[in-house]
Structure formats: C-alpha cells, structure tokens
Amino acid sequence: MSDHDEAILAASARRPIVPLEKGKFYTYGTAGFRMKADLLEGISFRVGLLASLRSRKLNGQAIGVMVTASHNPAVDNGVKIVDPLGEMLEQDWERYATALVNATSDQHLVEVYNLLAAELKIDLTASAKVVYGRDTRPSGHKLVAALADGLTATKTEFVDFKILTTPQLHYLVRATNSEGTPLAYGKVSEVGYYEKLAEAFVRAIRGRKITGTLQVDCANGVGGPKLSEFLKHIPKDKVSFDVKVVNDDVLRPEVLNLDSGADFVKTKQRAPPNPKPQPGVRSCSLDGDADRLIYYWVDPETGFVMLDGDRISSLAASFIGDLVESAGLKDDLRIGVVQTAYANGASTNYITQHLKLPVICTPTGVKHLHHVAQGFDIGVYFEANGHGTVLFSPDAINAFKNKEPQSPAQKDALDTLAALADLINQTVGDAISDMLLVEVILAHKSWTLRDWALTYADLPNRLVRVEVSDKDRFKTTDAERRLLSPDGAQDEIDQAVKKYKDARSFARASGTENACRVYAEAATRTEANELADRVARIIERYGTL
Ligand code: 16G
Ligand code: MG
C-alpha cells in the first residue's frame, strides 16, 4: 500500500462513481469516457489517478487530460487522456483506465491503483505531471475540479489551461514535454499556439492572395472564441484574410452543436440554416471541440456542395506531393494516405490512380489512422467526417530545412514545405490548423471551391444507423470492411452489393453508441439508397435474432 491511499480514499468518497446496472461497465472508448455529464464526476477523478500513473511510468513526462464531448449535445461530456507527444493514450492503457473507473468501492479503487502500480513497476514516489483543459460545456468546471482532486491525492503536479480546443490541449502537452530541447514544439501557452500558427501561415502563404470571404461556422463551441483570438495574431500587413466567424455563441449552452457544426453538415449534407446560407460564399464548419473540419458552399446553379475529409486529404496529398517533387525530394521521402472504410471510393481511386500515392485503410478512430500515418515520411490521414492531419517524419523535416536548393524554384518548394510542417498540427487533427492549410493551398493554386470540387466526382453514398439488441455481436475484419460475425451476414451483404454498379457496402458496430452503422455507395443516388436500405435490413434481421 502506498502513502497515497488515505488521500485517495478520502477524495474518492467525495467523488463517487454512479453504479451501472448489473453486468454493465464503463469503457474507455474511441474518444475516451463519454456520456451524460452527471455520470462523469467520479470517472474524471479516477482518470486523474490513471494520468498520474501514466506520467510516473513515463519518467514524469506531462500527460494531458481533455474534458469535452465534441459534437455531442451540451448535456454530455467526456474525459480523454493524451500521451506525452500529444497523441492519443496508448491502447494498452485503455484497459487500465477501464479497470480504475469500474472499481466498485473507494477501497477497491485503492486496491486497483496499487495493483496497477505494482504490475507496471511504477515508483509512486517519483514525480508526475498532468496538464488539462476543457471545452465550453458548463459541466466541465465540476469535472476538472474532480480531476484535480485525483491529481492532488496522488501528489501530481498539474497545470489547468482552462478553456481550450482539443487540439490546443494536444499542442500544449507536446510543447510542455519538448520545452528546452532541440525538438521544442512551441511556447507552452495558448498564445504560443496562436503565434506558431500565425507565423507559419504567413510563411506558407508566401505573399499569395486569399480571395473573398471565408465564413466559419463554429457550432457555438470553443472553436469560436479561439478562432477569433487566433485571427488577432495574423499580421494584417502580410496576409489579408477576411474571415467571418458565425455560430460562436458560447454563453448559451443549449445552442452548442445545435443545427450547426461539422457533424451537422456532414450527416445532413446541407449548410447550417443559420445564418441563412448565401450562394457562392466559401464556408466551413468546425465541430464542438474544433478537431473536425468540413468545407462547403451553396452553388447558385447546383445547390449545396460539400468538401469533406476525403477532399481535404486528396487536396493536401496532391499539393504536398507536387511540392516534394519540385523540391527534388521525390526519391527520398515516402508519401502515403491513410483512410477508413468510410472514404468515398472516388477519392481512393483519385489518390491511387491520379496522384499515384499508396492508400492504407484502417479501422475508424483517429488513433488508428495516426499510428499508420507515422509509417510514412509524409503521412496524410483524414476520416471522411473531417478528423485528420498530415504527419512529417524527422527525416522529412530535416530535408526541408537542410537540403541545398539547386534553383530558386526548389528553394521556394522547400521553404513552403518547412512552413507547412509548422502550420499543420503534428499531434492530432486540428480544425483551425487544417482550415489554414486549405486556405494556403487554395491561394497557391488560385482555386475556388468549385475548382477543388472538380478534381473528381464523389460516388453517391448513404449512411444508415441501425438499432440492434447487442451491437457487440457484430465483429469485423479487414479494417471494418467485412463482418466476421454473425455468421452469414457478410454473405448476404456480398449478394446485395453484386446487384449494383460500382457498389460497395459495409456494416460495423459503432464505437460511440449502441447501434450499428451501414455505409453504401454506388454509381447512382437511387442505387446507393437502395443498397443502403437492403444492407440495413440485413443487419436489422441479424441484430434481432
Ligand atoms: C469518435 C472518433 C472519430 C470516429 C467516431 C466514429 C476520435 C477523436 N474520434 O468520435 O474519429 O470517426 O468516433 O464513431 O478518435 P462511431 O464508432 O460511432 O461510428
Ligand atoms: Mg471533435
């Protein structure tokens, strides 16, 4: 038993866990613990214990904790843990988090805590550090107080960065751990984040002109005030960037993510109703914690056109691929694109056949894509829903900075690449940073959103949510593209897909709610809808067996 025991016992009594019905457990899911906020106080406290263990295990490096429920309604909240380089918590540790959170009493919690420390050979007297932040949800306040209790009980040093976007917290974790080293990621402050982005933005634009106004819908989430703050750091004499920030009311919690934001745009496939969409305006939407981005405009002739994560991915891959070639680095650096099964088939074709870049498909969830993207020198990863970023290896960054240019054009390409490596958040997908990347690329190419949309035509597609009695019976393989169980379901899906042209469909259990999701795409809208319905009926049937 450690000398933290008494303190943990006492604090735990003040931050109790809400018991679930028999046989049910809290789980650390794709995005940490996420649920109704009133269930989260005890969980947040226990996450504090876990974060302290993780920090001690990693020689006192700072661990991050972010309190957010992203695009969920205001009554929800969530707690997730960030590793020292700003990445998602290592997967092995998810079950330790789950074990702590499901301890059945204060005493049991202390036992699990000490058991983990022993099993993982953690010195509980070593120093530990945690940095944390929260989005604008009113419940966040109480949850970080519970978290701080967990940190105090375990004698963990901590820094409360108050209200942040999720990617800002990831940035701050990496900045904290790299401070004073040759790999310093940036100043350890929110202002440091803005300064880094603004400086890199100016360098990446290289005097090119950004045309027209960009309207940014912030889902009435934390991205609104943070984007406005960032814009103040752009030197007006160097870049003229006309941004209209809309849906940035963070004072009324009930409007958070309401009829707005990246999730609304992506799932409803239309522009937010407020402010009333004006034809032709270049627009984009962030989600509630500003780690997802979707572009769109309303065309006076054809109506709403959306440019989602797949589009951002192919735009970035194409632009960076060209720069690498101009920089004379094509033979030195491996560029690849990482997608999930939800990527539109047309985007995959465009990337493999037109851009001639390799594409790897992973299961859903940022952590999977991020991990695979690290295998490339330049790894572009995006989910269709707008989560994503571009990762540069140390070799790539070294080459941008140190390769001797053979011509002015080569120098220009190298400088732009070096600027992009600073502009693009290397820790996790970041809607503000991704938006700046898109604006840089459009400015370089002198492209409108229409030019961008014309690079390829999306296959019509449809996503259906299917209620099932037990989603866990649906097991997948091949990066979620095929069902292993229930027996026979995949054969039926295969039969259905065969009936349509250029068709593809798959079903998987959601990682965030108790339901299955069916995706279908085909040559025409009617076929895609029909196929989605058929497969949904198959899943419904197997789901109620
Ligand atoms: C989470 C994931 C997101 C994924 C989504 C899928 C992170 C930060 N977020 O929001 O990447 O697309 O879950 O949800 O990893 P689903 O499993 O319910 O379809
Ligand atoms: Mg989010």
TrEMBL record:
<comment type="pathway">
    <text>Nucleotide-sugar biosynthesis; UDP-N-acetyl-alpha-D-glucosamine biosynthesis; N-acetyl-alpha-D-glucosamine 1-phosphate from alpha-D-glucosamine 6-phosphate (route I): step 2/2.</text>
</comment>
<dbReference type="GO" id="GO:0071555">
    <property type="term" value="P:cell wall organization"/>
</dbReference>
<dbReference type="GO" id="GO:0004610">
    <property type="term" value="F:phosphoacetylglucosamine mutase activity"/>
</dbReference>
<dbReference type="InterPro" id="IPR049023">
    <property type="entry name" value="AMG1_II"/>
</dbReference>
<keyword id="KW-0479">Metal-binding</keyword>
<feature type="binding site" description="via phosphate group">
    <location>
        <position position="70"/>
    </location>
    <ligand>
        <name>Mg(2+)</name>
    </ligand>
</feature>
<keyword id="KW-0597">Phosphoprotein</keyword>
<feature type="domain" description="Phosphoacetylglucosamine mutase AMG1">
    <location>
        <begin position="308"/>
        <end position="447"/>
    </location>
</feature>
<keyword id="KW-0961">Cell wall biogenesis/degradation</keyword>
<feature type="binding site">
    <location>
        <begin position="383"/>
        <end position="385"/>
    </location>
    <ligand>
        <name>substrate</name>
    </ligand>
</feature>
<feature type="binding site">
    <location>
        <position position="289"/>
    </location>
    <ligand>
        <name>Mg(2+)</name>
    </ligand>
</feature>
<dbReference type="GO" id="GO:0000287">
    <property type="term" value="F:magnesium ion binding"/>
</dbReference>
<dbReference type="Pfam" id="PF21404">
    <property type="entry name" value="AMG1_III"/>
</dbReference>
<feature type="binding site">
    <location>
        <position position="291"/>
    </location>
    <ligand>
        <name>Mg(2+)</name>
    </ligand>
</feature>
<dbReference type="InterPro" id="IPR005844">
    <property type="entry name" value="A-D-PHexomutase_a/b/a-I"/>
</dbReference>
<dbReference type="InterPro" id="IPR036900">
    <property type="entry name" value="A-D-PHexomutase_C_sf"/>
</dbReference>
<dbReference type="InterPro" id="IPR016657">
    <property type="entry name" value="PAGM"/>
</dbReference>
<dbReference type="Pfam" id="PF21405">
    <property type="entry name" value="AMG1_II"/>
</dbReference>
<protein>
    <recommendedName>
        <fullName>Phosphoacetylglucosamine mutase</fullName>
        <ecNumber>5.4.2.3</ecNumber>
    </recommendedName>
</protein>
<keyword id="KW-0413">Isomerase</keyword>
<dbReference type="InterPro" id="IPR016055">
    <property type="entry name" value="A-D-PHexomutase_a/b/a-I/II/III"/>
</dbReference>
<feature type="domain" description="Phosphoacetylglucosamine mutase AMG1">
    <location>
        <begin position="208"/>
        <end position="293"/>
    </location>
</feature>
<comment type="similarity">
    <text>Belongs to the phosphohexose mutase family.</text>
</comment>
<keyword id="KW-0119">Carbohydrate metabolism</keyword>
<comment type="function">
    <text>Catalyzes the conversion of GlcNAc-6-P into GlcNAc-1-P during the synthesis of uridine diphosphate/UDP-GlcNAc, which is a biosynthetic precursor of chitin and also supplies the amino sugars for N-linked oligosaccharides of glycoproteins.</text>
</comment>
<dbReference type="Pfam" id="PF02878">
    <property type="entry name" value="PGM_PMM_I"/>
</dbReference>
<feature type="binding site">
    <location>
        <begin position="508"/>
        <end position="512"/>
    </location>
    <ligand>
        <name>substrate</name>
    </ligand>
</feature>
<keyword id="KW-0460">Magnesium</keyword>
<dbReference type="GO" id="GO:0006048">
    <property type="term" value="P:UDP-N-acetylglucosamine biosynthetic process"/>
</dbReference>
<feature type="binding site">
    <location>
        <position position="517"/>
    </location>
    <ligand>
        <name>substrate</name>
    </ligand>
</feature>
<dbReference type="GO" id="GO:0005975">
    <property type="term" value="P:carbohydrate metabolic process"/>
</dbReference>
<feature type="active site" description="Phosphoserine intermediate">
    <location>
        <position position="70"/>
    </location>
</feature>
<feature type="domain" description="Alpha-D-phosphohexomutase alpha/beta/alpha">
    <location>
        <begin position="57"/>
        <end position="103"/>
    </location>
</feature>
<feature type="domain" description="Alpha-D-phosphohexomutase alpha/beta/alpha">
    <location>
        <begin position="110"/>
        <end position="179"/>
    </location>
</feature>
<feature type="domain" description="Alpha-D-phosphohexomutase C-terminal">
    <location>
        <begin position="463"/>
        <end position="537"/>
    </location>
</feature>
<dbReference type="InterPro" id="IPR016066">
    <property type="entry name" value="A-D-PHexomutase_CS"/>
</dbReference>
<feature type="binding site">
    <location>
        <position position="287"/>
    </location>
    <ligand>
        <name>Mg(2+)</name>
    </ligand>
</feature>
<dbReference type="Pfam" id="PF00408">
    <property type="entry name" value="PGM_PMM_IV"/>
</dbReference>
<dbReference type="InterPro" id="IPR005843">
    <property type="entry name" value="A-D-PHexomutase_C"/>
</dbReference>
<dbReference type="InterPro" id="IPR049022">
    <property type="entry name" value="AMG1_III"/>
</dbReference>
